[in-house]
Amino acid sequence: MLVADRMIAGALMVLSAYFMWHAVELPIGWNGRTGGPGGGSFPFWLSAVMLVCSGLALLRSFAADAKASFFFDMSMLRSVLAIIASLVVTIALIPIVGAYIALPLFLFWYLRIYGGHGWVLTLSITLLTPVVIFFFFEVTLRILLPKGVTEPLFFPLYAMFF
Amino acid sequence: MEMFSLLADGFATSLSPLNIMIVLIGVTVGLFIGAMPGLGSVNGVAIVLPLTFIVPPSSAIILLAAIYYGAMYGGAISSILLGIPGASTAVATTFDGRPMAQQGKAGLALIAAAVASFVGGTISVVLFTLFAAPLADLALAFGPAEEFALVLMAFTTFVGLGGDDKLKTVIMICLGLVLSTVGLDLISGQPRLIFGDMPGFYSGVSFLVLAIGVYGIGEVLYTIETSKTAPTVTAAKITWKELGYGIREMNKLWRSMSIGSFLGFFVGMLPAAGATPASLMAYGIARQTSKRPDSFGKGNIEGVAAPETANNAASTGSLLPMLTLGIPGSPTTALLLGGMVMWGLVPGPMLFIEQPDFVWGLISSLYTANFAAVLINIALIPLFVWALRMPFTVLCSIVIVLCIVGGFAPSQKMHDVWMIAGFGVAGYLLRKADYPLAPLVLALVLGPLMEKSFRQTLIAEQGNVLAFIERPLSGTFIAIALLFFALPLIKMLRKNGRRAVAPAE
């Protein structure tokens, strides 16, 4: 799949150009006569090397004897995309409905709907995980996870453990 | 001898009840992570690192080192029982481990792997103890110029010795270094690469975010795509009789086990090499020097012993430059280094002077971890057989949840969780396209040191670039670095030269 190879090399070129564009906000040359390189020079020149190398990688893929470095297993690509989509939805939901709704929803979707596991396994993991997370992070480590609209529901628990 | 008293003091630390418990937990977690196909030591350390805030920093590092160790033992379990390596470091173990299992000798193969891991681990820890203090003493003389040259040398080993595409390796090193410059400039204090003033980037890109993304989410995506059908698990039961027989058999394998131990230790020290190539090399040498090379690949117990000693020895070897010089010898030790910096324990020679309790506690914990790992490994084999039957989706769901929560916990910013998802997808695509990820992670961890030492040297030397080659040590390192960098070019020229000569013959 040379197309995908080229797309990745192209994306890396765009990324390095973007880095270079932002790096010039600080001096990229020599800082005075004796001060050494300026703050922007490290990111700028390394991005420049990256730009050149990914450009070469792109050129190489057009050579006559270029071989594709990889293939997607098309039948599994759907699964990969489903996981990525569910991950994005879960992370987006966390600040709104809170980690204690979003994560069990993800687990339920993943185990029951996507994975097709039995109810016992699904429910035990879905219900146990938030409890373990609560005691590990909130009670022991005092790290509060985002709760969004469910915050008021936790007030009695806070009163109990803090 | 001073070293023995230091080591004895270290045992006083590592044999405290808390640390014994930590080692037992770490080794067990490591064994499970190593045994699960798709997860290796680096994934385990990345996912567990945010959870280690629960114990004091020195115990946290002991825990992570124990996981690293356990994973090296565990990798062999699925290599033998499933025929697919539990971690890339156990690839060579499948060559003879799987045929042994198919011949009904799974139990013997598992014992051989565990005992070989123990031998490799123990020999290499002794080597580690002998080399650590002298190397740290040597490193005391290092100034910023030497530090820069050493980091440069570490990166060039990837180009000269790494097996990956050279161009893609250079791209990944540069990307990692550029990502490490995000945030505040160390010298002028000004913000840079904050991408249009996004507040989340002011504190930079944390190594943990990249590691959880690439080795957590990215690994899950990669494994989902590549594991289509569930493999069959070979049943294995171990009796006392078999255990005794296995240990007696192992007594005949000192040749291949010592090859594995010494080779593994020294190959493991190189940042570009590590446990996977070390175990493949040990397998190759054991076969070449064997009296019956044709029996390899058909279930020769030596073919299990050699790579298993080597991968454990290599994991210890890669800890040596990390602890004494501050240059990690593998991606896993790069994460350990990042974790130590986060906890204010900056690796390098000064650590041996300022925190001898911690350093020798960690070294002595490697002895206890080894001992615990071999016992737990053999005792829990029935449990591993059961766990390997667990569908991968169950493990995946837990890993993803741990990545999200673990990514949020250290900084408590949703920004980092989004970054993890982004790095996960990007890491998966890059890995598919044969871009090596180890140099990327190493570059992000070492980037700040590299830039700081480079600019400090130039400020101290008033802009004199020659300062790097005028100092004897740093000059030597730079020369070696240039040699590594030129190695692929020389190889290419020689190949072309031969091609040109061939028709004339």
TrEMBL record, chain A:
The chain crosses the membrane at residues 7-30, 42-59, 80-111, 117-137. Residues 8-146 form the DUF1468 domain. The keyword Transmembrane applies. Coiled coil: none annotated. Keywords: Membrane, Transmembrane, Transmembrane helix. InterPro entries: DUF1468. This is Tripartite tricarboxylate transporter TctB family protein.
UniProtKB/TrEMBL annotation, chain B:
It comes from the Bacteria. Residues 20-442 form the DUF112 domain. InterPro entries: DUF112_TM. Keywords: Membrane, Transmembrane, Transmembrane helix. The chain crosses the membrane at residues 20-39, 46-69, 75-95, 107-132, 138-162, 169-189, 201-222, 262-286, 325-346, 358-386, 392-412, 433-450, 473-490. PANTHER family: BLR4373 PROTEIN, TRICARBOXYLIC TRANSPORT PROTEIN. This is Tripartite tricarboxylate transporter permease.
